[in-house]
Design brief:
mainly alpha, MetI-like fold, 2 domains, 17 helices
């Protein structure tokens, strides 16, 4: 009986020690709270400005709580056809670009896992070199011009359809799949494409979801390629439109032409457009965040 009571007491002490917070735990929690506030407070400030009256914005009295609540800035954005079209066009580019990028990434990563592939080491080196060396802006522009991609929507999809970093992540994830599955399928007569579509891709849903988010965020936030290659405003993505508005909204002529001559309305409009372009992509994160640790951390470390 004495021994059993001693064991029970030891178990209780261990449970207490496990449930007891240490000083380091409080430090980590505090750092997480600080980092979260640093990320969230600017968004709250923008939201407050977008919902505030221009009178309070001129006085600089809006911080985290809207003053003179109004939806006029959002009504202005949603009633303008160019913003709606830019939003639809950006959604289309994001979906098509993400699907194409995932297809190209899988097609590039899959052959490199075969040990019998001739020149596999050479291909790996050549592909990796492109991560560190780039031709530069002017050669890229001349290349786009020579192949007829200037002022062409394909210039927003094709050049960025493959990321070497993402390809390495997918290739590393493919390495985690047992070779016995592939060998069994080969014995049954399955070809390379069938093995990819029936074994590797179904087992790689976590990394596919994570890379899809990476590609989607990159395309949604991208505007530099459109700034260099696109002149037709019809093909302007939402971020480039936002870039132009932020650069020009303080100009008196542009403000008058666009109908934003009211003092302080420019700040409210800029805040509303930023929220209009940020919220849709933020809504995607909660659905795919659970795949991050499993696919990126594990797949990027092990080979």
């Amino acid at each position: 009986m004495a021994d059993s009571s001693i064991k029970v007491n030891r178990i209780k002490e261990r449970v207490k020690n496990k449930n007891r917070f240490k000083f380091g735990d409080y430090v980590i929690i505090g750092l997480c709270i600080i980092i979260t506030l640093i990320c969230v407070i600017p968004l709250i400030n923008l939201l407050a400005k977008s919902l505030s009256s221009s009178d309070y914005l001129v006085k600089g009295e809006v911080y985290l709580i809207p003053k003179g609540f109004t939806l006029f800035a959002y009504q202005t954005v949603l009633s303008d056809k160019k913003y709606i079209w830019a939003f639809v066009w950006t959604v289309f580019l994001t979906i098509v670009g993400t699907l194409l990028s995932l297809f190209m990434t899988a097609c590039c990563a899959y052959p490199l896992i075969y040990p019998k592939l001739r020149g596999r080491g050479f291909f790996n080196i050549v592909i990796t070199i492109t991560m560190f060396f780039n031709a530069g802006t002017i050669p890229n522009y001349l290349l786009m011009k020579s192949i007829g991609f200037l002022d062409n929507p394909l210039s927003l999809i094709v050049p960025s359809c493959l990321s070497v970093f993402n390809m390495i992540i997918m290739r590393s994830f493919f390495y985690q799949i047992p070779d016995s599955l592939r060998e069994a399928a080969e014995i049954d007569g399955a070809g390379f494409i069938r093995i990819l579509t029936t074994i590797y891709l179904p087992l790689s849903k976590p990394v596919i979801a994570t890379l899809a988010l990476f590609y989607a965020v990159g395309r949604w936030n991208g505007y530099s390629d459109a700034l260099m290659y696109i002149k037709n405003t019809k093909y302007y993505p939402l971020q480039l439109l936002l870039y132009n508005v932020i650069n020009n909204i303080n100009n008196v002529e542009v403000s008058t032409q666009e109908g934003f001559s009211t003092p302080g309305l420019g700040n409210s409009l800029k805040a509303a457009i930023v929220m209009f372009t940020t919220i849709p992509i933020l809504c995607v994160y909660p659905w795919l965040q659970k795949y991050f640790i499993h696919s990126v951390m594990v797949g990027a470390v092990k080979e």
